[in-house]
Amino acid sequence: MSDRESGSRPGRVTTFVFVTGAGGVAQGDPELTLRGHRTVGVELPGHLPAEQFSRAYQAPQDPAALATAPSPVSGVALDDYVEATVNVVRRVAAYGPVVLVGGSLGGAAVTKAADEVPHLLDRLVHDTAFCCTRLRSPAEYLETPEAATSLAKGLVAGLIGDPTALMAVRMNWRTSDPAFLAAAKKAFMAAAADGEFLALLNTLLPDESLLVSAADARGRTDAWGRVPRTYIRHTRDRMIREADAATPGNRFEVRTVDTGHAATAAEYGRISEILDALAT
Questions:
Q1: Could you tell me the pTM of the whole model?
Q2: How far apart are CA 119 and CA 93, in angstroms?
Q3: Would you give the DSSP letter of residue 45?
Q4: What is the pLDDT, as a whole number, of residue 2?
Q5: Which of 235, 229, 169 has the alpha carbon at shortest distance from 204?
Q6: pLDDT confidence bin for 280, thresholds 50/70/90
Q7: Hey, which of 14, 38, 116, 155 would disulfide with 97, CB 3.0 to 4.6 Å?
Q8: In a 10 Å sphere around its CB, with 0-12 CB exposed, 13-18 middle and 19+ buried, how is residue 220 labelled?
């Protein structure tokens, strides 16, 4: 039994555990570390750069090889993301309060992780992330009327390979297609300089599991529903009101940041300030 489970807390340093969205890699927040907190990123199965980056993905690219190479996330399910997240939470919970942060698709993993270990979490944060309540999965939310005008639809031109054959959604983030790059910048980081935007694309992993976005990611009201939670809203989001309706006694604390889906370094400073204020 951990110190948290036995009711004993050896310290008051908060650990922020980050679960990335699609295509992201495990990382913490250096600014929060400088402010005296611990931060750690969850390494999701199949999401190590060594597993996903290949010669075919480099320049000059080999489109035929890139379109057919086996994917390291083929068969990886949401339960696998949840297991990886819960393992990290269990490790860090022995050392003090835990704030679990999910970004974008990572919201599905943190919701289900909260179902598993609500007693180990001091707060749950969805940073412009999926929080499924009325609808069962991120994929279903992408089919709603609100999503009809989503700028993410402009990213279809970056798909490479057959998702059903790969069992993965493979994006060619390193393409030089000007139309795709313009659409991606508009969708992710419209206010950024080109250099910062291209640097972001070069960090993104090409593959994301086809299974994760279609999985049932709804949290249980008696588990996820009792963890204090904050939503950092980058844009207007229906999931806030649906989650509040599901647990009216534990509504989202909502903070709004004026930024695109992917914040620039300057804009992310505001997110770090919000998270810093949430430390227990």
A1: 0.89
A2: 10
A3: T
A4: 46
A5: 169
A6: confident
A7: 14
A8: middle
Is residue 137 within 8 Å of residue 162, measured between CB atoms? no
Give the dihedral of Cα atoms 138, 143, 145, 151; nearest 10 deg. 80
CA distance 79 to 151: 29
Q: How many CB atoms are located within 10 Å of the residue 112 CB?
A: 26
pLDDT digit string (tens) for 192-209? 999 999 999 999 999 999
Lookup: tokens for 25: 């890699």
Residue 277 corresponds to which tokens in the numbers above?
A: 């204020």
Backbone angles phi, psi at 65, to 5 degrees: -70, -40
d(CA 150, CA 104): 14
Chain-centroid distance of CA 267 in Å reads 17
Q: Any long-range contacts for 50-59 (C-beta under 8 Å, 24+ apart)?
A: 52/205, 52/206, 52/207, 53/205, 57/172, 57/174, 57/206, 58/174, 59/174
CA distance 173 to 161: 13
